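ERR on first pass: missing label on line 2. Operator R.T. fixed the label and resubmitted. Corrected input:
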Amino acid sequence: MLHSALINVMVKAARRAGRGLKRDLGEIENLQVSLKGPANFVSLADKRAEQMLYEDLTKARPGYGFLGEEGGTREGADKSNTWIVDPLDGTTNFLHGIPQFAISIGLQREGVIVAGVIYNPANDELYIAERGKGAFLNDTRLRVAGRKRLNECVIACGLPHIGRGDHELSRREMTEMQNRVAGLRRFGAASLDLAFVAAGRLDGYWERNLQPWDIAAGLIMVREAGGIVSGIDGHDNALETGHVVCGNETIQHELVKILKPL
Ligand code: IPD
Ligand code: CA
Ligand code: CA
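pass 2 clean. output:
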């Protein structure tokens, strides 16, 4: 399938860094038995992946800015374009050898996300989206699920880690949702949660306190698959607030109705 030069640049970078992460995953499986586990190894793998992405993306598009989870902001001469990159989303999964993690690359142009690539090297699933051109999983066009009744829906969420976020609020959310949905899931990689909504595997997803690199690529993925993404208040502010609610129009609306008053 033919994609734009821009998408080709993003895919090439994601695949190269992905090859590295896949090799590292093999090593991690061996390290599980050691008492300390593979934590240091993973932190190096993460940094190596970001460095590779930085090199490939800035070589192909010199001057674009770069915001990465590991290295922070690196300004470019071109103030209109910024890569927003998570070199390894789903670190805890990766650390435990669970093959649900991804490289996430978004491109922000004049404040708007115009392209996204999410790649899970463990199963070779590659998601791409470009503004106005649709979303794809390995060249198959994506469309969000069509279910309208919440009690038939499988919904994913995030759970705040130890020492982070509001655990009490999170428990209230769980209780409300458990009473209303067919199934609740927590997969552990925000970029893939969004990609799964785009692919119609999940009917919806919400999570609070995310970072731009967790969601930049996923936001455009869901939107280009015909879904709606908002903040918890229902407004178009997910990237700014870090709070995300999404699904088809009906389900996103239903989720906001439940979450907003909590
Ligand atoms: C995390 C994952 C996880 C989400 C966390 C994120 P990381 O990213 O996306 O699903 O619940 O809030 O920080 O740390 O694995 O890149
Ligand atoms: Ca992340
Ligand atoms: Ca990360």
